[in-house]
Amino acid sequence: MEALVVYITAPNEEEGAKIARALVEERLAGCVNIVRPIRSIYRWRENIEDDTETLMIVKTQKRLFESLQKRVRELHSYTIPEIIAVPVVEGSSDYLKWLEEVSG
């Protein structure tokens, strides 16, 4: 199994929790941590924005990424949601075994 950590931002905790719950219920992720608040400074439509957001840290499998990304786009209120996947290079064998069992 190739594990991924996926970072997704949302405008608030309620939307983040809605997306997180769907990903776990639909077995597209084994676990989602919600971190709030975070401060995001970014360029959008030629303006510099400074917003408070919620960050989801999603643990999943590489083979589920396309389906996960599609589902996030369906649920997310942003025009272009941040969905960034990072490979897990090393991890606890027990945790990675659990992740494989509960997702996908």
Give the spatial strand order of the biggest sheet.
2-3-1-4
CATH class category:
Alpha Beta
Please state the average pLDDT score.
97
DSSP summary, beta strand count:
4
Largest sheet: 4 strands, antiparallel
Number of domains: 1
Q: Bin the helical content.
A: 25-40%
Any idea what the radius of gyration is? 14 Å
Return the string of H and E elements: EHEEHEH
Tags for this model:
104 residues, alpha+beta, Alpha-Beta Plaits, 4-stranded antiparallel beta sheet, 33% helix, elongated
Question: Please, could you describe this protein's structure?
Answer:
The chain has 104 residues and is of the alpha+beta class. It has one domain (3-86): Alpha-Beta Plaits. The chain has helices at residues 13-25, 65-75, 93-102; strands at residues 3-10, 31-44, 47-61, 83-87. A four-stranded antiparallel beta sheet has the order 2-3-1-4, with helices on one face. The longest helix has 13 residues, at 13-25.
Give a nutshell description of this structure:
The chain has 104 residues and is an alpha+beta fold. It has helices spanning 13-25, 65-75, 93-102, and strands spanning 3-10, 31-44, 47-61, 83-87. The longest helix is centred in the N-terminal third of the chain and has 13 residues, at 13-25.
